[in-house]
Design goal:
Cathepsin D, subunit A, domain 1, single chain, 9 helices, 32 strands, 2 domains, alpha+beta, 7-stranded mixed beta sheet, binds 2-acetamido-2-deoxy-beta-D-glucopyranose
């Protein structure tokens, strides 16, 4: 059974408040006229042809608009799956064909049942004709904010394709059942077979960096991406790359190899469907224990509570190149209620780890050592190449090349963010208060235990709260078809 990972629920595109140019090492952008609007505030214009990508809430999941059979839909962009899955909720569209071929798309969290249909799919000004998609009839444990999921991985990972082989035969499936991106480049040989993503960063105050989603071209400010090392993507269902190691304050941390990658490398999925990366528990402990004042979350074996203004120097190394993690991406401010000694409840802000630990990978990620989700991906401009020939590969340029500048920016932006939130508690005080008050609410969990599907209620520090809006899902959610189940965290 093919399994896909898919992007989690609440998407977030980039919303960044002006990242300084120093941080991005690129000149001020000049022009605008975005075809796909960028949600939220963005002072750095995205490239004119960007298809539009926005995050839901505080950098949770990333969404883009598509037009399917004339109907505009907002779908989650997922580099960890290969099918277009849409929940029409009764809306009609112009189909080219409908079938009663049943498909069950499984994700790390939940599954979508439906039937295969075909319609013209527009991404910005590009039209893919007669694209196969899953018309959802039934959702199980599936909770997405948008209208569905656009899986942008290769046909090899497509559940629709594999189902069509069984029903219509290989030749017809190969003609009609390609994944959206593969259909696009098959139909448009005039275009370079690439799509580029830069996930934006936001905080409660607004956008810091906008998101970019380009098809067949590169952002003028990142054209050097064509010269970056070609990292072979070794798994059809998930965009991925072999990783050298992690560095922590200049020290190497080496991961175990698996059969998916050459000896000495670690198999890393690059999955926009995971707001929070999933890495070995030992690596999580390594990262967060290096932050002075950080403490283990007493109610989450794999989680950490970290002083909100503190950070550490982490990079992931691909083909000998460092990709630093911006300190803003290492921890997430989270609002929770704490009981004071008189029993009264108070909203407080604490900061939790964004790199989550696992003791066992979700099944569909067998052979992977890391799932580098959005908290990592915001630090790269990535070009995904569906080249035929040698096979798909990824090229990446760092968007956090200057760690000193990022640390300076962290201090400013994090302070501004915290100023809009309830009082901050340092980890020791928070833990002492929660332990002194039996019966107080649970410590928010970092949602890292895959087997534990219970959602842990906490509050997000995202803009939704300051706006008084209702509910934001910031969980790890990983997925549409076939991904393993990860718990959601609802920040309400
Ligand atoms: C999608 O379309 C809606 C409605 O036209 C618009 O408000 C939103 O900004 C668009 N989102 C993106 C990511 O372009
Ligand atoms: C699919 O449907 C659209 C809209 O009805 C139409 O314009 C297009 O020609 C059809 N494509 C095929 C291959 O029939
Ligand atoms: C429509 O789908 C059916 C399978 O349900 C297939 O037999 C038929 O050939 C398709 N028609 C076209 C025009 O693709
Ligand atoms: C989309 O439109 C832009 C500007 O109008 C153009 O530069 C670009 O090449 C077009 N993209 C495609 C794939 O046609
Ligand atoms: C999607 O499925 C529903 C339920 O089976 C059906 O009523 C609807 O016409 C289908 N829509 C398309 C576009 O195939
Ligand atoms: C697709 O999968 C098959 C078998 O799993 C493999 O041989 C082939 O190289 C893959 N193709 C791509 C483009 O990943
Ligand atoms: C880390 O690994 C790289 C490449 O394997 C090596 O060149 C470098 O010397 C190592 N650094 C340390 C501090 O061990
Ligand atoms: C590597 O494998 C060994 C043996 O299975 C295990 O003890 C160790 O924790 C693993 N290291 C990492 C970083 O996963
Ligand atoms: C964080 O804030 C605390 C309390 O205000 C202060 O003592 C500490 O030095 C700050 N740490 C950093 C790294 O700025
Ligand atoms: C905590 O914050 C929530 C959301 O803003 C608010 O509804 C609630 O009243 C606050 N609780 C307290 C005790 O201040
Ligand atoms: C972290 O990186 C900054 C910027 O390069 C550097 O000034 C600082 O000394 C580093 N900290 C550690 C503990 O290596």
């Amino acid at each position: 059974m093919v399994v896909f990972s898919f992007t989690p629920l609440a998407g977030r595109l980039f919303s960044l408040l002006f990242l300084s140019n120093a941080v991005f090492a690129r000149p001020a952008r000049s022009t605008v006229e975005t075809q796909g609007a960028v949600l939220g505030r963005s002072d750095a214009p995205v490239p004119p042809d960007s298809l539009g990508l926005v995050s839901s809430g505080t950098d949770s999941l990333y969404f883009t608009n598509i037009t399917l059979g004339g109907l505009q839909l907002m779908v989650q962009l997922d580099t960890g799956s290969s099918d277009l899955v849409v929940n029409l909720r009764g809306r009609q569209l112009d189909v080219n064909n409908s079938t009663n071929i049943h498909v069950k798309a499984q994700y790390v969290e939940g599954e979508a049942d439906g039937v295969v249909a075909f319609a013209d799919l527009q991404l910005g000004n590009v039209t893919i004709s007669n694209q196969a998609f899953l018309n959802v009839t039934d959702l199980t444990n599936f909770n997405t904010l948008g209208d569905g999921i656009l899986g942008v991985a290769t046909t090899n990972g497509s559940t629709v394709f594999h189902t069509l082989i069984n029903s219509l035969g290989e030749d017809t499936a190969a003609k009609l059942g390609q994944s959206p991106m593969q259909s696009l480049f098959t139909q448009r040989p005039d275009l370079a077979s690439t799509f580029d993503l830069q996930l934006g960063r936001s905080n409660a105050v607004g956008d810091i960096v906008p998101s970019t989603f380009l098809v067949g071209e590169h952002d003028k400010n990142f054209e050097q991406v064509v010269n970056a090392p070609q990292l072979p993507s070794f798994s059809g269902a998930h965009w991925s790359a072999p990783m050298d190691h992690m560095t922590l304050n200049g020290q190497n941390f080496t991961f175990n190899s698996t059969i998916l990658v050459p000896p000495g490398k670690a198999a890393a999925a690059l999955d926009t469907g995971f707001p929070f990366p999933l890495i070995p528990a030992a690596a999580v402990d390594n990262i967060y224990s290096s932050i002075p004042g950080a403490m283990r979350n007493p109610q989450d074996d794999l989680g950490w509570i970290v002083p909100c203004n503190a950070s550490t120097n982490v990079s992931f190394v691909f083909a000998g190149q460092d990709f630093f993690v911006h300190p803003l991406d290492l921890t997430i401010p989270t609002v929770t209620q704490v009981a004071a000694s008189d029993g009264s409840m108070h909203n407080s802000t604490i900061c939790l780890n964004t790199f989550h630990g696992y003791t066992e990978m979700p099944g569909e990620f067998a052979g992977f050592t890391l799932i580098l989700g959005d908290a990592f991906l915001r630090n790269v401009y990535a070009s995904f190449n569906l080249a035929t020939g040698a096979g798909p590969f990824v090229q990446m340029v760092s968007t956090t090349p200057d760690l000193s500048a990022a640390i300076t920016e962290f201090q400013t932006k994090r302070s501004a963010d915290l100023a809009t939130l309830p009082p901050v508690l340092d980890p020791a005080t928070f833990i002492a208060m929660t332990q002194a008050n039996a019966g107080s609410p649970q410590t928010p969990s970092s949602a890292s235990q895959i087997a534990d599907s219970a959602a842990t209620p906490t509050q997000s520090a995202g803009p939704e709260i300051s706006n008084g809006a209702a509910q934001l899902t910031v969980g790890i959610h990983g997925v549409l078809l076939g991904a393993a189940l990860l718990p959601l965290v609802f920040f309400m």
